[in-house]
Structures are given as C-alpha cells and as structure tokens.
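Extended Data, panel c. Modelled sequence:
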Amino acid sequence: MAWFSTGAVDDFLAEAGEFLRTERVRNTVILTVTESLRVSGQTPAGESPARDAPLFGYWRPAPSQRAPGQSQVGAAFMLTPGFPLLLTHVAGQAAADLAGQLAASGRLLQGVNAAEEAAWAFADAWRRHTGDVTEVHRRMRLFRLAKLMPPQPAPKGTSRPATPNDRALLIDWLGAFAIEVGDPPAQDHGATADERLSYGGITLWEADGVPVSVAGVTRAVAGMVRVGQVYTPPAQRGRGYAAGATVAVSRAALDAGATDVLLYTDLANPTSNALYQRLGYRPVEDRLFLSFGPAKPS
C-alpha cells in the first residue's frame, strides 16, 4: 500500500475522483474545493509543487487488502495553504504512514482534519517525526438537509442575491466570520467574495432594506452544495436573521437542482447546532481538527 501525491488537481481527480464520489457527502470539502480550484485554474500541472502550493494525494491499498470490485483508491487527502491537511476516512496506520511521508518531504502543516481515530494516528506520527505538539482546535459535525423547515414566525425582512456592489461589505463580513470561528487570518477574502459572486453563491438577508445577515454556498459538485460562512453582525443577532439567510440559500440550492445540501458546525457552538436542526438539517458524521505547533522550551 502506498500514498501518491500531485500538485495538479486534474491529475488528482482523474485518479481519485471516482472514489471521492462514492461517498460524496462525506467528501464534500475535497470535492467542492477541488472544483473551485479546477474552474479557476489556480493549480499548475506537475507532481512536485512548491512547498506552499496546494497538494493532493490518494492511497492505494495492497491488492490483497481490497474487496472484490473495490476501488483501487482507498483514501485521499488535500492540503491547501493556510488550512489543515484534510483526510478522508482511512485506517490509522495509513494515516500515520502519510504523516511520515509528508514530514520527510519537508512540508509544514498547521494541523490535520479527519475522523477522530485517523486524526490522532496522524498527529502521533507527525509528533514522532517533527517534534511538534498537538492541540484540539475544533470538533465539527457535518449535517445534511433532510426536509427544509422555515422558522415560524418568519424573521423580519427578505433575501436577495449579493451583487458586486456588495463586495466591500462581503469582505468585511467574511473577515469577521473568519476571526470568530478561528480560521486562518491571512485569507484573501476579496478573492473568496469574487469567486462566490461569480456563480451567485452568496445570499444576503435584508431588514428595512439594510443587509443584516449573509449565507454562502459552494459550487454544485456531483449534485451537492455546502452552506458556509453564515454570519450576522453582533448588533443584529437574536432576531432570526441567520435562520432566514440559511433557509433562503438552502431553498435556492434545492431550486437549482441540488440533491444534497450540507453544512458543518462547530460542536462547541450549541446555538448554531440547535438552529440548523430546527431548520431540517440532520447529523452525518463528526470530524476532529488538531493543530500542530513547535514544542515550547521548558
């Protein structure tokens, strides 16, 4: 069994795309991010990318370990600048093998995002190879929309698609959202806003003609989209605006033909977890984000 890596998103999808689509809901992040990178042309061809460039990889189990008819690819990973390594479901030993391979290549990692067993196996191996210490950064839960249930009573206001005229506001709100949830601070929120605007992927909720909340959605891939970056400024909270924006963007995705509408929550935030379940979202799986850093001198 072995891990193979490449910096070319098209090459990665040619090898691992079928595997990823067999469990498209659980692999939503890799599928949607690679689709955005593919559309934008941000990843060059070639198997030896710079150390700060995106890297993709897949694991081939030994023939004796594959069930009849099983895909030759048994797991995959994605590493994009500023974010932890993202691992699909994989056995702990394979995760540990990947940690050793990446450490030997000189890659620097902020952390790992995986199912709990694989995350800890990767982190333990990474520590042995690099000396980095591990901290639990976030526990997340993936939800899938079962049946959309708008809040009753409905919040004041109405939704509308964001336009390029909203760009400055979107950049501010995306930055505020990143700070609140602990995402990397150096993200290019202008690029994120432009990319979402290019396919109508941002919805604003307005009250009295003033934007009070926002919800984004990824590009549709394999019939699914993922709601993300739902944000309401602190002064406007407690009035149901986030629920209104979430329902609006979810309904728009369904109307556009999505068969699976998904979202992630931080398990440390009981408010958002309860809200999305009231709106009709149901749990799929949990994931663990472990952060890495150098050991502090004693």
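The first strand starts at residue 2 and ends at 6. This feature is highlighted in the accompanying rendering.
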